[in-house]
Design goal:
six-stranded parallel beta sheet, alpha/beta, globular, 6 helices, 18% strand, 187 residues
Length: 187
């Protein structure tokens, strides 16, 4: 009797694992630099930022056409919010895609400017789902855990990366170790 229960449990675990792998295979996440680390800083009217956004649109649409239906953004200032806005634009054309916000903690925006906070909260209201790891700030570990969550639940990473050390380089290294497909956009 115990062997039958163990066999049934193992079969159930295997089925759950297959379902999770299937979901991950249609999920992409984003990682990239915050505005202050980008060549154009906060000026999204800069021609370099406009060119990056055009490449980002191409990469997101390629992912959609390959079957990706869920996108995860860390919702930080800079590339994360640009990605969220771009996915939301695509939702008009591809109604079945979803956008999930992965937040390290609920008060992520507490020290941001009023303008950035308003942009962020406007985006939060339009997300299909929000996953929040902590209620309060837990230091850099909260960001690392958020990034690992995104990678662990995806099979594709679309990154804006200029080669400098930081959260983006750490996330890309972790994604490579996990065997994810990686698309890098240069700023």
């Amino acid at each position: 009797m115990q062997n039958k229960k163990n066999l049934a449990l193992e079969e159930a675990k295997s089925e759950i694992s297959a379902i999770i792998n299937d979901l991950n295979s249609t999920t992409a996440c984003f990682t990239g630099h915050r505005s202050q680390k980008l060549p154009w800083k906060f000026n999204e009217d800069d021609e370099r930022c406009i060119a990056m956004k055009a490449i980002l649109r191409q990469e997101i649409e390629k992912a959609i056409l390959k079957g990706y239906r869920t996108f995860i953004s860390g919702m930080a200032i800079g590339f994360d919010m640009i990605c969220a806005e771009t996915v939301l634009e695509f939702k008009r054309q591809y109604e079945d895609i979803k956008l999930i916000g992965a937040l390290p903690y609920k008060t992520q925006d507490i020290k941001w400017s009023v303008k950035d906070r308003e942009r962020y909260r406007g985006l939060l209201a339009r997300l299909d789902d929000v996953r929040c790891l902590y209620d309060e700030y837990k230091g850099k570990d909260g960001y690392i855990e958020r990034n690992r969550y995104m990678v662990n639940n995806s099979s594709l990473v679309i990154a804006l990366y200029c080669g400098i050390y930081g959260g983006t380089s750490y996330t890309l290294k972790y994604a490579r170790e996990q065997g994810l497909e990686i698309v890098i956009i240069k700023p």
